[in-house]
Structure formats: structure tokens, C-alpha cells
Amino acid sequence: MKISYNRKDDILIYEVGEGKIDYAEEMGPIIVHFDKEGKPLLLEILDASEFITQTTKFSMKTIEGERIEIAA
User: Fold this and answer.
1) Pfam families, alphabetically (predicted)?
2) Residue at 30 is within a domain
């Protein structure tokens, strides 16, 4: 896996496979590029700074049994 970041456009790119990209699907802030067989090859996370901030909030664990509410 190869990871790169485009600071100018705030895009995080994960290369998760090798091959020729055939098509892409947008899933919220993520664009997934697939080969002809439907195998994901590349993930682009748009507005990566915001995405990572939100993802970090979701991954918070409860502290001393308290329930943590996340506003979407």
C-alpha cells in the first residue's frame, strides 16, 4: 500500500492495489477507483483534513464508562 497527500487540494490518496483503473464511484468524501473486475485499486479522500478530524472524533472510546455523543 502506498499513501500520499496533496496539500494544495487537501486530498489523501491510498493506493491499495495494482492494475488498470476502469471506473470510479464517489462515496461521500471518498472516491474509490476500481479495476474491470471490481477490485478497489485507489482511494481518494477529499477534504482530507476535515475527514481525518471527523474520523478521529468517531474513534474516541468511552472514558470511565461515560457515553460519548458525536454530532454529525
Assistant:
1) DUF2283
2) yes
9: cell is 487540494
CA 2 to chain centre: 13
CB atoms within 10 A of CB 50: 12
Q: What is the pTM of this model?
A: 0.74
Q: Which three cell numbers mark 46?
A: 477529499
In tens, the pLDDT along 15-67 reads 999 999 999 999 999 999 999 999 999 999 999 999 888 777 665 554 445 66
- Give every strand in the sheet of 30-34, ordered side by side: 2-6, 11-15, 40-45, 30-34, 23-27
Q: By the 8 A CB rule, do 36 and 72 touch? A: no
Structural domain count of the chain:
1
